[in-house]
Amino acid sequence: MVYEPTLMTGALLFLIGLAMVLLRREVLFVLMGIEVMFNGAGLTAAAAGQYWQDSVGQILVLFLMTITGAELAVALVLVFLAFRRLKVTQLADIHALQDAPPLAEESRS
Amino acid sequence: MSDWLWLIPGSPLAGAAATALLGGALRPSTAARIATLAMLVCAVAVAALWATGGTGGAARQTLYTWMAVGDWQATMGLRVDRVSLVMVSVASWVGFLIHLFSLSFMAEDYGERRYYVFLNLFVAGMLLFVMADNLLLMYLGWELMGLCSYALISHWYRDGAKARCGRKAFVVTRIGDAALALAIFLLYTHFGTLGFEPLLGAVSSSHDDTTLLGWIAVLVLIGAAGKSAQLPLSVWLPDAMAGPSTVSALIHAATMVTAGVYLIARLHPLFEAVPQILELVAVVGALTLVYAGLAALGQHDIKRLIAYSTISQIGYMFLGLGVGAYGLALFHLATHACFKALLFMGAGVVINAYQGDHDIRKMGGLAQGQPYLRLVFLAGSLALAAVPFISAGFYSKDPIIEAAAVAPHGGLLWSLAILGAVLTGAYAFRLYLMVFHGPQRGETVPYRMSWSMRLPLGLLALASLTLGFVELPHGWHLPQLWSPWLAPEVGAPELPHGGGGVLLQLAGMVAPLAGIALAFSIVRRERAGGGTSTVGVLAQGGYLDTVYDLLIVRPYFGLARALRTLVESWSLNGLALGSVVSLIRGGNRLLSMTQNGNAARYASLMVLGAVLMVGYFLWIR
Amino acid sequence: MLWNGIFYLTSAVMLISALFALFARQPIHGGLYLVTSMVAMAVLYYLLGAPFVSALQVSLYVGAVLVLLVFMMTMLHRPAPRVYVPRLNRRFWWPMLLLLVLLAEIAALFATGPQTALPRIVSVGPKVVAEELFGHYLLIVEATALLLLAALTAVLYLSRKVEES
């Protein structure tokens, strides 16, 4: 086996996930994209683990999966709440947490 | 006695401090009594000074070292020689009488305590000025007087016009103060010392660089002209009448306005080193005395009239200084202090009798209601007009006129001086006749003067009539006490002798009488509605105020306005502040863009970061 | 040789199904494509000598994560989905540019340069992994457990019924 193509595969998967995050407007697709990105990272870790012939790569993948699970649970609840409260599924419609508009021109003292 | 010299300026200073610090805890009458008591102590100390060392050498006392820089030091040193003794006596005795007068005159005024604080402080400043043994301490007294003058002129400051008069006085005298300061700086850099004895010794013995000494003398002259209200800096004194009459009596008749005379007399070695400047002093005095005499003829405000009269009489003193008759100038200073203070205080009573009206055209016949006032006022007017033999003014003014005749440019100086004598007689008696003579006019109240007002007026009237006898006219082998007594310090005056001298003396006697005769006809015309007060040039003091306003005041304010627009509004607010503000706002706008709540944009930015990082790794590989 | 063939074939399946997920019209379609992708990935894990993780991939990712996603999709009913036509505006091109640049960088990073060859694939079994996990990395395990607890609490709190005020 050649090592670099395995890394490349992982990177390409990551890229596809990134494309899903950046180019899709719905919230669920963004979350799915994040999942794909995690998977890409995990694949890279496993390939590296094989390179060093160590179990560390697998351990990293395990932790990634666990954290993904936790994160997804919370994220999905939030998406659901957003849907129920704000009636939105587009990511661009959730923008309440932003900087205030610039102050109006103050009169010169 | 030398150990007690500090008591003379220290007593009024302590009075001022006590009144100022105790302030509201005192009743106004108590403050008045404290001030007068301080002045009494001072006057008694001066009398003691006369008793112990009046004819001997100088009394000295050094209080402490004021400042020491390197090997130069300035001390607070007091020195009283005969010249200073004259000034100190005038200031303290006349000052005491005026304080006594104020006890009743200024009662139930608002700001009484403030008045007495500044009055005492002023006398302290004057005494420091006169008793200083170095130029620096003298300047301290000079400035202190200027401050108190400003404060006292603006005594009724709630009237904006009166406050403006105080400011005007301060600003105009400031020009003189600045000139004097420059002169002091020049003297120090050239001679390295400011004490009078070493400095004047060095000046007399230095024969080089008369241009520098000339400039110094000119600057001193400007300073003296500012404080003494001579041309061209005379415009502040007529407006200074906005203050109480007692203030006018003390500051603008007897003491502060004579400070310039003392200054030049003290620094006379400097002036003698540059004779042309001395001639300039005489010319300034002569021109001023005629100008002010003409202006006094056209005034209808009683106090402004007396103010112009003061300017004119000080012109005589400057004339005396300029022709080398320093002793005579000081003599005229002493007599003038007596009768001018008397006239001012009398004017104050007249104004009160007429319930605040200053216009003499509405007055008349006051002699019937106020006989005592009429008598003392007559005494003062006689002295002012220098009526021969019976008034002190004659014995002090006439020698000056004679000395002017034998000085350089004597012809011009003498003609102006004689003209001035005629004018003086005219305006002095114009005033007396219009107020006191004839049928009763105007609304008067029966103003009763208490003993504390009658006594000072009486004493000053007595002095106005008798003080002259210490210097009887020369050439007749009569006793002369004044000039010889001062001669060791200021030299003897040059007076004409022989036939020409007698002729000049006769002229000097006739001139005031001619003026008085003129006054009768002027008053008749004035009562009929015309008269000199309708002549615009005279009434407006030669339009000097208007000229200054156009030439100096308006351009100055215009410049200030232009600067405000140019520098304040445009540069500072616009460019400097504005650019900083714009910078901050722009930065804020820029950074806000990263926090716009758009999650996709956040993701893009993160990816951008990742791209850059990977690119970096590629690059270093 | 065989290994290489299976590897490239499986990775092709994985990537293509991910791409289909990218262009899917409905979320459920996207989810299903993702399932395919992840199963392919499990095979890849096995090929890379990680049988333990391969099994976990199927049970955790497919069995838990994607199931969760599908549940959510059923709860968020939307009206008839539109055709996904990406609007070619500034919002599209700017990320596209970034992605292309990133693609180029990845290619430059991995395709160029020396290629290392690994002669043998060693299968790192579950026993080895477990020894490392509960030996050297015990602390992180416990920490992860805490994290899961926190996520559990958060989800329970956020999903409670709120009184309609």
Please explain how this structure is put together:
- The complex is a heterotrimer of chains A (109), B (621) and C (165).
- Chain A is mainly α and 109 residues long.
- Chain A has helices spanning 3-23, 27-52, 56-86.
- Chain A starts with a helix and ends in a 23-residue tail after the last helix.
- Mean pLDDT of chain A is 85; it is low at 105-109.
- With 621 residues, chain B is mainly alpha-helical.
- In chain B, strand 1 and strand 2 form a beta hairpin.
- The longest helix of chain B is centred in the last third of the chain and has 49 residues, at 544-592.
- Chain C has two domains: 1-78 and 118-124, NADH-ubiquinone/plastoquinone oxidoreductase chain 6, subunit NuoJ (Four Helix Bundle (Hemerythrin (Met), subunit A), Up-down Bundle); 125-165.
- Helices cover 73% and strands 0% of the residues of chain C.
- Chain C contains six helices and no strands.
- Chains in contact: A-B, A-C, B-C.
- Chain B binds chain C through residues 600, 603-604, 607-608, 610-611, 614-615, 617-618, 621, and chain C through 91, 94-95, 98-99, 101-102, 105-106, 108-109, 113.
Keywords:
heterotrimer, A: 109 residues, 3 helices, disordered C terminus, B: 621 residues, mainly alpha, two-stranded antiparallel ribbon, 3% strand, globular
Q: What is the approximate shape of chain B?
A: globular
**So how many helices of chain B?**
25
Question: What proportion of the residues of chain C form beta strands (DSSP E)?
Answer: under 5%
**SS strand fraction of chain B:** under 5%
**Rg on CA atoms of chain B, Å:** 30 Å
The CA-CA distance between the termini of chain C, in Å, is 68 Å
Secondary structure: helix percent of chain B: over 70%
Considering residues with a beta carbon less than 8 A from a beta carbon on another chain, report the largest interface and each chain's count: A-C, 64 and 77 residues
CATH superfamily of the largest domain in chain C: NADH-ubiquinone/plastoquinone oxidoreductase chain 6, subunit NuoJ
Structural class of chain B: mainly alpha
Averaged pLDDT of chain C: 86
* Class inferred from helices and paired strands of chain C: mainly alpha
Number of DSSP-assigned strands of chain B = 2
Note the run of SSEs of chain B as H and E. HHEEHHHHHHHHHHHHHHHHHHHHHHH
